[in-house]
Amino acid sequence: NQIATTQGAAAPVKMPIKSGGALAALVPQSIDEAFRLAEALSKAGNMVPQHYQGKPMETMAAIMRGMEIGLNPMQAMNSIAVINGRASLWGDALPALMQRAGHHVDVEIENEGTLEKARAVATLTRGDTGKVIVRTFSYADAKRAGLAGKQGPWQQYPLRMLMNRARAFPSA
Question: What mean pLDDT comes out for the span 92-108?
């Protein structure tokens, strides 16, 4: 499929650009594709989180970890944080995966007006059995764990951090 030019040489046909259609993530189908994507993303500057910029191996690890739990590459890079050497889900990724699995999680803050007395209460309702599981995490718990006042989100968003801890807190 080539078009002749006025000089007799053939020019390649350019495919038209399409818009619209269903949204779909670019999902690598092999380890080589995943690494090529990781290399490209690590060079994408401010389009990716700072801790992945210029680090193709860390980017690759995040993509692989995310794919293991059903996250697309960009979702993984924005939802996996390495905390004390452990790749962990953070933010809204955990409840999103729970909802995708058919469960419901709700988190409320008690005593929101007084940080020292604040406590997050997470209620999970399993979609498969209907079982209700309640977990709490208080500012007092955060102090005991050495988290309260810690540099980063514990200083900036302590109530949000309580909520995240309550909904991720394991069973006793």
Answer: 89
